[in-house]
Amino acid sequence: MAIKTKPRLRVPSSAKKGELIEIKTLIAHDMESGFRKDKTGKSIPRDIINTFTAAFNGKTFFEAHWYPAISANPYQSFYYRASTSGELLFTWKDDDGSVQTAKASITVA
Asked: Are 88 and 54 in contact (CB under 8 A)?
């Protein structure tokens, strides 16, 4: 399953300098483990999002590697210490090579 859905993000639009902010992401994906079988007994091929990254102004600061045990529609929450204004880029990479990205801006005062 190529990643076709738009990810959902929860990122504060502004923060104080040095403030620790929580970032939440959610993407719809079946996350097929490769261990299940269909009604005929044939194995359903593995198809998961295997890598999630978050970058700020082009520099990666968070990376997660997901494996078959991750649930469908993976939710990822993490923290970032805001120091300057800029753009956050989130990237999800699938087993089939498809990539989905989402962006959010933050203003630091």
From this structure: yes
The reported pTM is 0.91
Q: What does the alpha-carbon distance between residue 29 and residue 8 come to, in Å, rounded to a whole number?
A: 12
Beta bridge partners of 34: none
**Residue range 45-49: mean pLDDT, rounded:** 93
Query: Which of 91, 99, 94 is closest to 70 using CA atoms?
Result: 94
What rounded mean pLDDT belongs to the chain?
A: 94
User: Using CA atoms, how far apart are residues 19 and 83, in angstroms rounded to an integer?
Assistant: 8
> What's the pLDDT at 5?
80
What three-state secondary structure class fits 51? strand
What is the rounded average pLDDT of the residues 50-70?
96
Residues 6 or more apart whose Cβ sits within 8 Å of residue 16: 82, 108, 109
| CATH ID of 8-108, from 2.40.400.10, 3.20.20.70, 2.60.40.10, 3.30.230.10 | 2.60.40.10
